[in-house]
Amino acid sequence: MIIPRLEEKKIDFLVPFVAVLTALVFGFILIILTGGDAFKGYQNLFAGMGLWPDRAQLFRLARSLENASVLALTGLSVALAFRCGLFNIGVEGQFLVGAISAAYFGILLDLPSFITIPLILVISFIHGGLWASIATYLKLKRGVHEVISTIMLNWVALNLIENYLVVGPLRVPADPGVVVPTGTHTINATAQLWSIIPAIGLKVDIIIALLATIAIYLLLFRTSLGYEIRAVGYNQEASRYSGVNVDRTMFIAMFISGGLAAISGAVLVMSVLHSYPAVFRPGYGFDGIAMALVGNTTPFGVLSAGLFFGGVRQGAAMMQLVGIHKSFADILQALAVIFVAAQGIIRYLLIKYAKPITATAVAEDV
């Protein structure tokens, strides 16, 4: 009798899931080893994520979804570039470009909100895409690896924005004698994202992330351009031999990747911050790498990773009530990435231990 094996797609789905569960188990053990109350800590973690249906929990759930929307968008940015064989380590810089674009045009434009908000998102997308295209140009025309150029462009974006624009042309004039940096002006009310449920502060940022996820899924798996992006990611030379314009495909993929990262920054400004602060070190661009890896570079996998870790970030704040530092969220995220990176071991264990289970199920059916 032939014993069926786990299908490859099922393994691809299970690997990130098992990695996250393993990270939670190891996190539980780490809390115990450091003398903390792991049971109470995890209880507070899940309560802080907003998983119980009372008003206080729903408010926390809204904050979790805010985090998730930003993480999902930066994760989609990294995942799309990965699919084309590009390592976009410059998502942080593109994120900042989108944030400052939203702050500037949110101050400049005071049209009806149904015009202002989509227009700012489009402008931010274009600016982020153009910023990312610098790295693509350097790669294709000058042979500069995108890992190097995108990392360097992160610092160029950061210093250009924070050390020139925010303290220069876009600076809010401070009172005489005040030397504390203030950041930009507050964006107009018409540039602030709409609320879905005002009572708990839930806004449309999670809808934007969901729509972006669907759009990237359709692009990758339902269009000829998406096929070319994935083909180039698998094998550039074979794609070129089969007639794919590899340079054009890379430019488009990196442009969209940068645009997604910029929309993430714009969403944060338009939903939560309402201005570009004087000092801004969000780190969401680097978190996007983790979301892409944990989500297995699939659009809905990245969205799921964003939802989970967005909740963990919110829930980690409540863990402080039992003496567990809020950086525990970063530890869980790092552990999940480590176990995803070790997916060869997880795949081996899944196949090894799924065989007898599957065989038993077949015998029972017979």
TrEMBL record:
Q: What is this protein called?
A: Simple sugar transport system permease protein
The answer to keyword Zinc applying to this record is no
GO annotations of cellular component type: plasma membrane
**Organism placement in taxonomy:** Bacteria, Bacillati, Actinomycetota, Actinomycetota incertae sedis, Candidatus Hakubellales
Keyword Acyltransferase among record annotations: no
- Can you tell me where the transmembrane regions are? 12-33, 68-86, 115-140, 192-220, 250-276, 288-310, 331-350
- Which keywords, in A-to-Z order, does the entry hold? Cell membrane, Membrane, Sugar transport, Transmembrane, Transmembrane helix, Transport
Q: How does it sit in the membrane?
A: Multi-pass membrane protein
Please list the GO terms describing molecular function.
Answer: transmembrane transporter activity
Q: Which InterPro entries match?
A: ABC_transp_permease
Where is it located?
Answer: Cell membrane
One Pfam assignment: BPD_transp_2
